[in-house]
Amino acid sequence: MKLKLFLFAFLYSSCLFSQSNKPISLHPENPHYFLFRCMPTILITSAEHYGAVVNVDFDYIKYLDELRSNGLNYTRIFSGTYIEIPGSFNISDNTLAPKHGSYICPWARSTVPGYEDGGNKFDLDKWDETYFERLKKFVSEAGKRGIVVEITLFTALYRDEGWTSSPMNRINNINNINTAARNDAHTLQSGSLLKYQEALVRRIVFELHEFDNVFFEIQNEPWVGGNGVEVLSFEKDKETREYDKQLIVRLADQKSLEWQKHITSIIVAEEADNKNKHLIAQNFTNFKHQLQIQDVHPAVSILNFHYALAAAAKENYGLNKVIGFDETGFSGNKDETYRRQAWRFIMSGGGLFNNLDYSFTVRAPEGTAQQEAPGGGGRTLRMQLKILKDFMESFDFIKLKPTPLKADKPADYEVYGLSNPDKAHAFYFEGVESQENILVDLPEGNYQIELISVEDGKTKFLGKKNHKGGMLKFETPGIPDFALRIKKI
Fold first, then answer.
1. What pTM value is reported for the model?
2. Is 298 exposed, middle or buried (0-12, 13-18, 19+ CB in 10 A)?
3. Residues 107 and 124: beta-carbon distance below 8 Å
4. Mean pLDDT across the stretch 365-382?
5. Distance set, CA 336 to CA 242, 243, 343, 384 (Å)
6. Which domains does the chain have, with CATH numbers?
7. Residues 6+ apart with CB under 8 A from 294
8. Most buried of 52, 297, 341, 386, CB within 10 angstroms?
9. Per residue in 253-308, pLDDT tens?
10. SS3 assignment for the chain
11. How far, in Å, CA of 9 to CA of 12, rounded?
């Protein structure tokens, strides 16, 4: 054992030396997961609503400390091209809705009064260096805590209020921008606005080139705000029970896709001379895609979904990229809802999960606020997500792949699984309290088996089994959700 520990320490230190400052990347052995600071990595979090940098009243040190203390390793932020107003999407104490005078973005204020949300208009030809200092400090502090930052460069302009408060709107800047309609803002038909967007992307990518804990997302939810096309509708079923209406899947239209490819090319060009390249993510749709995603820019390595079904991970697994579930949080405030979404997705081959955590506010950056909100959050949920992260990390998960599980089970249970057939099996059972037996088809082998409560993390050792192959019987624990950790010995 001492020799193994010594070899691990030697190899790890050698890796750190050789990989110094190399950004988070796809794992070379299994690109459905990440390699970060020489360690196989899966990103899981319950994080604030993207305003950590643009809202100067938000104490991001307390926020990052809280994520670290909960064992979480990921946060997502918006760059500042868009903010919300108090009450947007029925969110109270929204970190992405700074009060008057507390909004900071990449562009400097001019001397001309008249910004729609208070203060002077913006000058898109000048940078606000204070913003870039805050952005880099935030990323630096996150890195010290082992937290990866997803920088979302642009976002959909959902409603008129999102456009009328954006610095890109000609009413809010002094640069005579000739883009009139908000649904043209993120297309190649945006007129003179495009050159400012290109410059913004180059500046942010340049400023963050030294950081290893960053990846870039092109645009948040590009299929809304007048730039989407409906491709699929389906009714509620077992997997979509959190949603209270018919699900409609929309994809970005062709104009949006062309613009997203262009922005991707700007990122690639800006990093062309850099030894270390940062990952790029593209946000595709809510729920799932009707088929495997096609025509992905070769530089895009992370395929992000919102309010994702497990099928989003399963159906796109063959693309050999990280499949991300990088936003949920509009299905009430029960921890169970978001805990189950996370387990389903990760246990279907996903590599990234983010819940919008409304317990993080300006007044409670440590994540203790209790409020009426469209979603949930708080320390209990964050600790439950840590149970999932710890469960995955208890395996050599780089070797795990989604498995078509053969099992006889109570009808009310759903089962999700990952396996390395020769070494280990990880299963998640979701359903109702039941004392019925479950039969799981496993290859021949000697197994050590543990049952884990996904709610509180309590582990029950079920013993060692000399299994001859075929169906192996388990008695359900009488709790709705649980996981099985099965390893060959």
1. 0.93
2. exposed
3. yes
4. 92
5. 10, 14, 10, 9
6. 23-398 (3.20.20.80), 403-488 (2.60.40.1180)
7. none
8. 52
9. 999 999 999 999 999 999 999 888 999 999 999 888 766 677 789 999 999 999 99
10. CHHHHHHHHHHHHHHHHHCCCCCCEECCCCCCCEEECCEEECEEEEECCECCCCECCCCHHHHHHHHHHCCCCEEEEECCCCCCCCCHHHCCCCCCCCCCCCECCCEEEEEEECCCCCCEEEEEEEECHHHHHHHHHHHHHHHHCCCEEEEEEEECCCCHHHHHCCCCCHHHECCCCCCCCHHHCCCCCCCCHHHHHHHHHHHHHHHCCCCCCEEEEEEECCCCCCCEEEEEEECCCHHHCCCCCCEEEEEECHHHHHHHHHHHHHHHHHCCCCCCCCCEEEEEEECCCCCCCCCCCCCEEEEEEECCCHHHHHHCHHHCCEEEEEECCCCCCCHHHHHHHHHHHHCCCCCEEEEECCCCCCCCCCCCCCCCCCCCCCHHHHHHHHHHHHHHHCCCHHHCEECCCCEECCCCCEEEEEEECCCEEEEEEECCCCCCEEEEEECCEEEEEEEEECCCCCEEEEEEEEECCEEEEEECCCCCEEEEEEEEC
11. 5
Q: Rounded CA gap, 393 and 452, in Å?
A: 14
The count of residues in the chain is 489
pLDDT digits (tens, 9 = 90+) for 338-352: 999 999 999 999 999
pLDDT at 435: 64
Residue whose C-alpha is closest to residue 362's, from 92, 46, 153, 146: 92
- The residues, any chain, with a CB within 8 Å of residue 368's CB and separated by 6 or more, are 359, 378, 379
Phi-psi region of 95 (alpha: psi -120 to 50; beta: other; left: phi over 0): alpha
Mean pLDDT, the chain, rounded, equals 90
Q: Decide if pLDDT at 20 tops 70.
A: no
The mean pLDDT of 18-23, rounded to a whole number, is 74
Please state, in angstroms and rounded to a whole number, the distance separating the CA atoms of residues 277 and 267: 10
List own/partner pairs for 161-165 with CB under 8 A and 24 or more apart.
161/84, 161/85, 161/88, 162/82, 162/84, 162/88, 162/225, 164/116, 165/82, 165/83, 165/84, 165/85, 165/116, 165/117
Residue with tokens 């408060």, as numbered in its chain: 165
Sorted by sequence, the CB contacts under 8 Å of residue 369 that are 6+ apart come out as: 93, 358, 359, 360, 361, 363
Predicted pLDDT of residue 7: 44
| Residues 92, 114: Cα–Cα separation, whole Å | 26
Residue 220 confidence class, pLDDT cut points 50, 70, 90: very high
d(CA 288, CA 317): 12
> What is the Cα–Cα distance from 340 to 322, expressed in whole angstroms?
20
pLDDT band, residue 5 (cuts 50/70/90): very low
